[in-house]
């Protein structure tokens, strides 16, 4: 029997082949972007609207990197869009070329914020990044395969295709919806209505639902139909229906309570105000430090010169002492050699018995004199070497003192210009740096509180609608689980993504697709016992 670990290893093999193929195809592209402006912020994520220099054929929800001023930021494309002359100041009122289907404008999402406007940027599209991320998640999951219990139920065929039913005639009345809804829909609108009925039926039973689709457009279409049924009802009014991770311009205008940031604003307003105040304080303190950065640089430079001067002075002092000791040793040797020479004269003038009695041996005295002469010669060389080093270090000291004097004069001039006492500037710097650390920690603490509230909003939602890519990439969804997973356009979603998404469900998984394109998934699931292969992605 195929286990979760076996399935994951097979998926890892297929994903590796997919990544290799994407790398070989060199389908990454660098796209110049202009006139970027911030249009939305939610759950720590910012969405920017850009205009494109030339039309491109772009996919929806593709990972990539945004390069701005040499810095690179992970991002995702959201969707092509229409940029009005009012928004950009340019006549570019239709950004989807109707003939070629190419995109002339784009929304890009990234974590954090890069300000209210981005004049110029370069978008690097990396389709393989999604697969690389999924690959890493599956590697991490090998140690905890039990989390894929629901995925295994689906992939082992523990599902059924229920008989088609006729959609309720009164689609605006939630009370007409039965506990289980199955419809055969022939148009996109019918499919959206069928999906809406299924969602509301689950919600009536108190189940939490994760609705996933392949593109932002299909998510928005389904979400709009769902919210139309729930508008004015507690599910909508209490912010229990959330559209996560998209742009939703029209959807957000008609139904603002599906936007997580609207609910966040209500629940985190005080925290956000505190955070903004701290951010302003942090910016002010950093600006203050930046203003005096040149002064601090001169102080550090002066300190470096002072240390160099002190080191050279200490070195010269040690050399002087070494020279004095060497000269003292030389003087002692000279005294000894004079004494040996006197003893030699006495020995040469003395008779045989006097030499024996006084132990005056001319040969031994001659050897001792030679040793003293060699010692004196070596000592003189040592002294000469020390004196040469002292002269060298003295030159270095003179240069260092001159540089120190120049630096000190420039420091005094700069300090007078800024009205700061150099003697207390470093202590002020340390206090400001400590203040920055304190403020930064306070901001991080608020971020954690805001993140906890965002997670709570997500956990309390009865419906979360998003794209399949976000199921893999969104960090808040990593900690969230749902009673029911509904995958729209399931026939167009690769199996490894379905398997991962199914791990988010605890009770049921509903796969929705075009009947004409649908194949019973029990026929698609590989079984190693019968020698099946995983189909291509």
From TrEMBL:
Family annotation (Pfam families): AAA_11
DNA2/NAM7 helicase helicase domain mapped to chain residues: 191-517
Protein name: AAA domain-containing protein
UniProt cross-references to Gene3D superfamilies, sorted A to Z: P-loop containing nucleotide triphosphate hydrolases
Molecular function GO labels: helicase activity
Top-level taxon in the UniProt lineage: Bacteria
Annotated organism of origin: Heliophilum fasciatum
InterPro entries cross-referenced by the UniProt entry: DNA2/NAM7_AAA_11, P-loop_NTPase
């Amino acid at each position: 029997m195929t286990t979760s670990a076996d399935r994951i290893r097979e998926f890892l093999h297929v994903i590796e082949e997919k990544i290799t193929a994407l790398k070989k195809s060199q389908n990454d592209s660098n796209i110049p972007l202009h006139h970027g402006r911030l249009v939305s912020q939610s759950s720590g994520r910012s969405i920017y609207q850009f205009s494109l220099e030339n039309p491109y054929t772009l996919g929806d929800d593709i990972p990539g990197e945004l390069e701005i001023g040499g810095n690179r930021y992970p991002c995702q494309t959201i969707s092509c869009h229409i940029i009005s002359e009012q928004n950009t100041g340019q006549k570019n009122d239709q950004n989807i070329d109707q003939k070629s289907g190419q995109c002339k404008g784009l929304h890009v999402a990234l974590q954090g914020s890069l300000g209210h406007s981005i004049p110029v940027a370069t978008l690097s599209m990396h389709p393989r990044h999604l697969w690389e991320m999924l690959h890493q998640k599956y590697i991490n999951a090998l140690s905890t395969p039990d989390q894929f219990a629901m995925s295994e139920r689906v992939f082992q065929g523990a599902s059924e295709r229920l008989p088609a039913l006729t959609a309720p005639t009164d689609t605006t009345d939630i009370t007409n919806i039965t506990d289980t809804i199955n419809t055969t829909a022939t148009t996109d609108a019918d499919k959206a209505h069928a999906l809406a009925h299924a969602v509301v039926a689950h919600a009536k039973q108190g189940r939490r639902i994760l609705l996933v689709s392949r593109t932002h457009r299909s998510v928005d279409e389904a979400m709009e139909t769902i919210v139309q049924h729930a508008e004015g009802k507690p599910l909508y009014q209490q912010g229990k229906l959330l559209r996560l991770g998209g742009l939703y311009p029209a959807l957000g205008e008609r139904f603002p309570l599906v936007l997580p940031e609207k609910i966040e604003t209500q629940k985190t307003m005080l925290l956000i105000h505190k955070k903004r105040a701290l951010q302003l304080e942090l910016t002010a303190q950093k600006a203050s430090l930046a203003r005096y950065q040149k002064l601090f640089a001169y102080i550090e430079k002066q300190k470096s010169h002072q240390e160099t001067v002190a080191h050279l002075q200490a070195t010269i002092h040690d050399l002087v002492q070494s020279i004095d000791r060497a000269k003292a040793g030389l003087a002692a040797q000279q005294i000894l050699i004079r004494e040996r020479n006197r003893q030699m004269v006495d020995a040469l003038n003395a008779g045989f018995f006097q030499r024996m009695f006084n132990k005056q041996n001319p040969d031994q005295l001659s050897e001792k004199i030679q040793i003293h002469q060699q010692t004196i010669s070596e000592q003189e060389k040592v002294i000469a070497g020390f004196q040469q080093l002292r002269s060298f270090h003295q030159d270095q000291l003179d240069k260092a003192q001159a540089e120190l004097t120049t630096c000190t004069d420039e420091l005094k001039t700069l300090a007078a210009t800024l009205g700061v006492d150099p003697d207390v500037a470093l202590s002020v710097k340390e206090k400001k740096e400590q203040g920055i650390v304190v403020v930064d920690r306070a901001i991080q603490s608020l971020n954690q509180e805001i993140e906890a509230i965002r997670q709570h909003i997500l956990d309390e939602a009865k419906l979360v609608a998003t794209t399949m890519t976000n199921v893999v990439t969104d960090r808040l969804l990593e900690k969230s689980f749902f009673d029911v997973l509904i995958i729209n356009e399931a026939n167009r979603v690769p199996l490894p993504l379905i398997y991962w998404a199914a791990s988010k469900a605890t009770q049921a998984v509903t796969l929705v697709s075009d009947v004409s394109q649908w194949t019973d998934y029990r026929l698609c699931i590989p079984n190693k016992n019968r020698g099946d292969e995983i189909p291509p992605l």
